[in-house]
Amino acid sequence: MLRSTFVHLSGVGPATEVALWRRGVRDWSDLGRLPTGSPGPSPTERRRARELAESESALGERRASWFASRLPPGELWRLYPTFRAETAFLDIETTGLSPYEGIVTTVTVHGGGATRTFVADDDLEELPAYLRRFQLLATFNGSLFDVPFLAVRFPGLTVPPAHIDLRFLLYRIGYAGGLKRIEQTLGLGDRAGVEGVHGLDAVHLWEEHRRGRAGALERLVRYNRADTVNLEPLLDFATAELARRLLTSAGAIGPPSPHVAAPSTWAPNPPANG
Fold first, then answer.
1. Domain-by-domain residue ranges, the chain?
2. What is 85-235's CATH superfamily?
């Protein structure tokens, strides 16, 4: 999807992007080959050529931050298929709803081929350094809860440069409510062993752990990990559905322009090189 994206370029909005797709411009290289209709490139064409070259460079160097600073906030999801291996799915558990009244008890980060849970009074201080290895951050309501909570806990915290909040992404395609409700609606995710456990239970489990109850911390960690790992299939679903709807809104993509060489098959996700 990323190489088929043009709204990060100067002067290109959603309507222009759709118009380009309908002309058969389906990749950055296609846009660079569009006929100019004039003897020499205009200032706009020169700027566009420069931005396309910068796009290729940023992609080659795996700099999601470059795209994140140029894409509309609601379009950051387009980065996920390309930067999937560099995405950190994150969820936290706390003892309260305010970072000034409660503490962070556990934080799970899932991504890069591993799932790791950080625990207060153990290894939680290692979280900021661990997060710096990722390019994208995926949460559920994390822009309003998890990230602000962590920012108070770790002043100066640097999170991955592009943040995809699944609560709002899923709402955009018609799925409202809490994480567990949406999981059930879509039939996605696995909560084996922590069925029926909810946020308030997580607070009680931490309190029981502090009082020395055997197994309380293990159950809390398992719950936190389920909340986190289940975000991955939800984001897979949401990005695929958004791409499908985007292409449908473009009129199913008309025949390619005779002036532009384009693939014979249009797909929301390009080959593995991005």
1. 2-81, 85-235
2. Ribonuclease H-like superfamily/Ribonuclease H (3.30.420.10)
Segment 69-124, tens digit of pLDDT = 999 999 999 999 999 999 999 999 999 999 999 999 999 999 999 999 999 999 99
pLDDT tens per residue across span 7-38: 999 999 999 999 988 888 888 988 877 665 55
pLDDT of residue 206 exceeding 80, the answer is yes
3-state secondary structure the chain: CHHHCCCCCCCCCHHHHHHHHHCCCCCHHHHHCCCCCCCCCCHHHHHHHHHHHHHHHHHHCCCHHHHHCCCCHHHHHHHCCCCHHHEEEEEEEECCCCCCCCCEEEEEEEECCEEEEEECCCCHHHHHHHHCCCCEEEECCCCCCHHHHHHHHCCCCCCCCEEEEHHHHHHHCCCCCCHHHHHHHHCCCCCCCCCCCCHHHHHHHHHHHHCCCCCHHHHHHHHHHHHHHCHHHHHHHHHHHHHHHHHHHCCCCCCCCCCCCCCCCCCCCCCCCC
The pLDDT value given to residue 272? 31
- In the prediction, which pLDDT does 40 show? 56
